[in-house]
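Table 4 source record.
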Amino acid sequence: MRLPIIMSFGFVLVFAPAGYSGETVAHPQLGLRLTVPDGFAQDPERVQKQVVYAFQRPPEGQQKFGVFIVVSRLGGVLGREKLDPKGIASKNPHVTLTTEKWKDFDIDVFRVPEQAGELRLLTFNAQVPLKPEAVQVSVIGEASREAELRGTLQSVLSNLDGQTNWLNTEQRVSRLAEGLTGLAIAAGALVVIAVVIWRAVHGRKKSRGRTEPGAAEDRGRM
């Protein structure tokens, strides 16, 4: 079962200055290209273990906690099997499963509420089916700003590019059509072979009937 990488909030309590325009990064090994929304600054010190990118935007107004974008490796490609929400709930009853769009695909998003001291936080973990390795995009912030966090996630996904091991609808239809065409050709070939064999066998029976002893005499009597 695929489960979200739960980010530790201990590393996200130091904020960078505001005023950064949207930054674009590329990861050749993962084949990933990503542009983050305006106001986020890259934080390379937080890149460790599975984390390949970390960005942060400082709190504004009455906020006590900023917004964070974290991109983590998942260690392999993702299949297209549907996840079982009940199975996820059995692991953590507070985690719920939703979906978001990435390219033409509906991808799994884990909604993870957490508590960090007196702060009620919320994380959205979106699993993106890149190849050669899938990634998880996490957006973290105050639970009271859920709509904003969801909008940030949607913005990140719309600006994340890379190759995928999933086929889109057009490609799947094309593959299906190719498969059906191949089956039709194979079936046609089998029919032709069957007709040739039938004719050969039928021809042998006729030839055998003409050469059997007494066949000529019988014809003469007629």
